[in-house]
Write a structure and sequence with these properties.
The protein is 30% helix and 35% strand. It is built from 6 helices and 12 strands. The protein has helices spanning 47-63, 67-70, 74-99, 193-196, 201-210, 215-225, and strands at residues 2-10, 20-26, 32-39, 107-113, 116-122, 126-131, 136-139, 145-152, 155-162, 175-180, 187-191, 232-240. α5 crosses α6.
């Protein structure tokens, strides 16, 4: 088995600051990898500080990661990643307290090692499993959000609002799950909400499977073409089980 990964983060059509942050890496032997997307919460100050702080922590964690240290010990990985999320949350919360401000970020992290994967998730960025034979994607994360009604210029609109994120509170809860890789799963897509808000799953599938090599750039272009004004980030990892 060998992993092939890439990723792009884009400020988008309108915004001047990119509050999304991305980190991904694959080991030299291609047997393990990490992919993380953090989306600084819009409407709050310093969203870019929160998201970049999250990915910087993850990069440092990855630099010390050694598959042999964890082997098949999912409990050890769970403890280590939980400590990582707690450290990210503590840093952002301390920054908010020191600067009397508010900032927060989503975080969707995928760790691939051996024949297993682990997902850490807070917020409404997403991780999808991709099945090339079916040309389908399957959402593996649950959005921590709810629909709210807002009024603008006399018109009522439905918007999505986060119900959880990193940095809001001194304590943090995150979704953590494990799975086993099998040959039906050809890859994973990790993305911020800029990818999927105005593109339904059918459009994402059509774009992704038409050209997997350039999937990230094409998904970002596709979002812009249908009027997405938010920051847009996508990372994609394909799996070759024959290598």
């Amino acid at each position: 088995m060998k992993l092939f990964g890439n990723g792009i983060t884009d400020t988008g059509r309108v915004k001047q600051v990119n509050q999304d942050s991305l980190f991904y890496a694959v080991s030299d032997d291609g047997k393990s990898g990490i992919f993380a997307v953090a989306d600084g919460v819009g409407g709050l100050e310093f969203g870019e500080v929160a998201s970049s702080g999250a990915t910087e922590h993850i990069e440092k964690w990855w630099q010390s990661f050694n598959t042999s240290d964890f082997a098949a010990d999912s409990e050890k990985i769970a403890d280590s990643l939980s400590e990582l999320v707690f450290a990210v949350n503590s840093d952002i919360y301390a920054f908010n307290e020191a600067n009397q401000t508010k900032s927060a970020t989503t975080l969707s992290l995928l760790l691939l090692y051996g024949n297993s994967y682990c997902i850490v998730h807070v917020g409404d960025s997403r991780i999808y499993a991709c099945v090339r034979e079916e040309k389908k994607i399957y959402q593996l994360t649950k959005d921590h959000s709810r629909d709210i009604v807002v009024e603008r210029d006399g018109r009522k609109m439905i918007r999505s609002a986060l119900t959880d994120g990193i940095g809001y509170k001194q304590s943090i809860k995150c979704d953590l799950s494990f799975g086993q890789l099998n040959s039906s799963v050809s890859g994973f897509l990790i993305c911020s909400d800029g990818v999927y808000k105005k593109q339904n799953e059918k459009r994402i599938e059509d774009i992704l499977f038409a050209d997997e090599t350039n999937a990230c750039s094409n998904l970002i272009l596709g979002a812009k073409q249908v009027g997405e004004n938010d920051n847009i980030t996508a990372a994609y990892v394909s799996i070759d089980y024959m290598l």
